[in-house]
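As agreed, record copied across for absentees:
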Amino acid sequence: MKFKLTAVLVVLAIGMLSAQQKKWSLEECVEYAVENNLSIAQFELDLENAKIDESDAFGNLLPDLNANANASERSGLVTNPQTNIIEPGQIFSTSGGISSNMTLFDGLRNIHRLNRAKLNALANQYRLDDLKDDIRLNVANAYLSVLSNKEALNVAKAQYAVTEQDLKRTEELVESGALPRGDLLEIEATAANQEQQIINNENLVLISRISLAQLLQITDYENFDIVDEDFEVPPSDVVNNSAKTIFAKALDFRNDIKLSKTNIELAEKDLVISKGARYPTLGAFFNYNTFYTNQFQTFENPATGEIVSFRNDFVDQLWINDGIQYGFQLNVPVFNGFSVRNDIKRSKINVERAKLQLEQDKLDLETNINQAYVDVENSAKAYEAALKTYEARKLAYDYSKERFDVGLMDAFTFSQAQARVDNAAAEVVRTKYDYIFRIKVLEFYFGLPLVLE
């Protein structure tokens, strides 16, 4: 028994450890954010409400059916429901019935309301999908920020490791009298500065991890981390397309554009519904009612002149006292204080407003794509320039190190060369991940998934 318990505990411990050591990929982060984001959950509820509204609109096309029943007892002066005569006594009565109403014609407003409800459900779906697109892009940006900070941290640690070697060598040379003590102090200052840079980069990694975790609605910041991979700039054919081509394709699949187009259809449907209020409304109704009372019926026997009293039983009275009513009802609008006319005017204005919003959304999309296209070109140039700068700084540093090692350069000048190469290396990391993100943004506008390879 103890062996089984120990085995279970070991399995649970391994499971908890593996869960804590889980490394998240970009695809996993995006999928998790879409499934757990609170704003998305709220929009999904709005979509469910829109579907319920669609069911309500369909129900308005169907006839209703209602049943009613009541029972009462009264003493004193009562009205006999069979003779309709007020008389003293005590009476118990019960009644019941069914009724049904149906709209036969209302200017086709119910049909248009059903079509509008379907469009509204579709608009809510586009609205939800557009929010998911925004969250995917935000997650990708936060994910790449973590990667950038991690790589910058690794670079800082690697540079510090080189400085440590220089520090040991300088200590030996100072002790042997080959170099003045001032050179050692200069190298120690450089090492201290790099240690501070490592601490700053560690803080940036932590902050960026927390920001990404918050986007995913994850509160266990300490155990949350992403896959440790060194991504290079991915090859992409999207830059071979012009900004105009990317914009033309984006118009076909972007959910914000689909939402704007659907809003125009909704506004046009509202206009049709408001115009339907000018037409007459024709409805049909059907009612069936019956009742029972414990009062006796009295009548005079014409043959004998005798007063006879009797009371039918419950079932017989239900059959005897029943009645049916059915017919049609027509309502014709004549004058309503200009409300119908003004509603039509408001609906026309809303149609024009929706059309203007579509044009504005197209303009915003085109502006964003042009900006993304320019950002890709600029970030590519910045990355290439950073690489060239780093290579030049690295060559200068190697040359300075050779001179410093043989005592032909003082520590202050050497530390400046080292600081320049450190800054160049950090700029390479920053521009690289900025370039990667800009490419992903442009690919996103082109309809490509957010994937890091």
